[in-house]
Amino acid sequence: MQTNHRRGLMLDPGDVVDEVCEVFGILLGQFLHQRHGHRVNRITLEARMVACWLMRVLLQMSYPAIARALGLRSHADIIRLMKMLGELPDLQAVAADMAVRLPLTHYTSAGAPARQPSL
After folding, report:
1. C-alpha to C-alpha distance for 32 and 49, rounded to whole angstroms
2. In this model, does residue 102 exceed pLDDT 90?
C-alpha cells in the first residue's frame, strides 16, 4: 500500500478501482465481472488497462498481485492488458493524468521518490 503522508491516508487497490470506475463511468460490478469466453466492452477493457498500470506504478504491485486484486485468472492477463495500453497513447495520457490526481505522494518505503516506469 502507498501512504499519502500529507493526509495520513493509505491507498489500496480498491481505491484505485473505485477511482477508475468513476472516471470511466462504469459500475464496480461491470469492472469486476469476468465470464470466461465472453467479450468485455471497450470502456471496461480500457478501465482495466488503466487500473493495472496505476496499481503497477503507484502501488508497485506485482503482476500476480494485480491479477488477484482484479479477480483475473492469471498474471498473463495483466501482462496482456499492459501491452495493450502501451499501444494506445490517448489512454496512456488518461492513466498519467489519473496518477497525478490520485491522492498520493510517490515514495517508496525508504522515503525516496518511486521510479515511474514509462508507458
Report:
1. 13
2. no
